[in-house]
UniProtKB/TrEMBL annotation:
Family of this protein: Belongs to the fatty acid desaturase type 1 family.
Annotated Pfam families: FA_desaturase
Keyword DNA-binding part of the UniProt annotation: no
Record's subcellular location: Membrane
Keyword NAD: no
Gene that this sequence comes from: FAD2-2_0
Protein name in UniProt: Omega-6 fatty acid desaturase
Stored PANTHER family: OMEGA-6 FATTY ACID DESATURASE, CHLOROPLASTIC
UniProt cross-references to InterPro entries, sorted A to Z: FA_desaturase_dom (IPR005804), Fatty_acid_desaturase (IPR012171)
Annotated GO biological process: lipid metabolic process
Highest taxon listed in the record's lineage: Eukaryota
Keyword set, alphabetical order: Lipid metabolism, Membrane, Oxidoreductase, Transmembrane, Transmembrane helix
Entry-linked CDD domains: Delta12-FADS-like
Domain Fatty acid desaturase: 44-303
Length: 343
């Protein structure tokens, strides 16, 4: 199941890029011919942004596989492809690769996990109870889906706390070791190069053209990545552990598979095979369904799957999973933490 086929992996890259190019061609060559301008054109660009964003989310996921060395048998090729694809989506490839690798090594640990570490009740701010209502919850979700991804890379928002400022763009920050710093510079250079290319495009075709053709889809990509990661690691049935109870296998099972319907294939099964991904991160996505079917009978009740529609799950988790607190049932270890929402 972990056999990596260079030809097959590249076929998904080519397929996704052809589909993305086709949507781009249609948008830039035909939208201005639509009747009832500008209303119809605005609607068409909004649809384009969503559909193109879904396709580019699949491209992002292939780049993720490069970071896991799941794309090919050649690490240098994985890093080259991953650097190009992630840079084009304004993601610092090596920076993410290293921090995400530590997420896989420490998932479920309240002290050491790198991303989506839940707050403990003692750290909940006094004003949180005033935000736990439908209007504020909607606002929180909107801000999370639109801004959390760039804020995570830039300011480590929602990331593991460090004793000083941490940023994925800082080669000398606490996230990285000395041997990784050169590659962080390379990641930064890749993002800067794409920003420069977008600047030149804006000068040639206009800022509105860049925002419509690239900015809208990128916003959708960022939103889906945050949503997918959030729902993979946030669920009332998922425990978290402190250092007295955590081990790697326990942590690897602190995730839940979700169903995105027809988008499962578009997203290369990132959401409905995530349990297998955390157990065997070097398995290519085209073997992930096979791996998931194999581990289900072995894991039994330890395998987590939730078929709740995504929009309902997002609302429920935002409402019910506010913080974690130790299990206070008799005989249970205080090192196991569960979600709660009583403020």
């Amino acid at each position: 199941m972990d056999r990596r086929s260079l030809l097959r992996s590249f076929s998904y890259v080519v397929y996704d890029l052809i589909i993305a190019s086709l949507f781009y061609y249609i948008a830039t060559n035909y939208f201005h011919h639509l009747p009832n301008q500008p209303l119809s054109s605005t609607a068409a660009w909004l649809i384009y942004g969503f559909v193109q964003g879904c396709v580019l989310t699949g491209v992002w996921i292939i780049a993720r596989e490069c970071g896991h060395h799941a794309f090919s048998d050649y690490r240098w090729l994985d890093d080259t492809v991953g650097l190009i694809l992630h840079s084009c989506l304004l993601v610092p490839y090596f920076s993410w690769k290293y921090s995400h690798g530590r997420h896989h090594s420490n998932i479920g640990s309240l002290e050491m996990d790198e991303l989506f570490v839940p707050k403990q009740k003692s750290s909940i701010r006094w004003y949180s109870k005033y935000l736990n209502n439908p209007p504020c919850r909607v606002l929180t979700l909107v801000v999370t889906l639109t801004l959390r991804w760039p804020l995570y890379f830039t300011f480590n928002v929602s990331g593991r706390p460090y004793d000083r400022f941490a940023s994925h763009y800082d080669p000398y920050g606490p996230i990285y070791s000395d041997r990784q710093r050169l590659q962080i510079f390379i990641s930064d250079a890749g993002v800067v190069a794409v920003f420069y290319g977008l600047y030149r495009l804006a000068m040639a075709k206009g800022l509105a053209w860049v925002l419509c053709s690239f900015g809208g889809p990128l916003l959708v990509v960022n939103g889906f990545l945050v949503l997918i990661a959030y729902l993979q690691h946030t669920h009332p049935s998922l425990p978290h552990y402190d250092s007295s109870e955590w081990d790697w296998l326990r942590g690897a099972l602190v995730t839940v598979d979700r169903d995105y319907g027809m988008l499962n294939k578009v997203f290369h099964n990132i959401a409905d095979t995530h349990v297998a991904h955390h157990l065997f991160s070097k398995i290519p996505h085209y073997h992930a369904m096979e791996a998931t079917k194999a581990i289900k009978p072995i894991l039994g009740d330890y395998y987590q799957f939730d078929a709740t529609p995504v929009y309902k799950a997002m609302w429920r988790e935002a409402k019910e999973c506010i913080y974690v607190e130790p299990d206070d049932e008799a005989g249970q270890s205080k090192g196991v933490f569960w979600y709660n929402n009583k403020l």
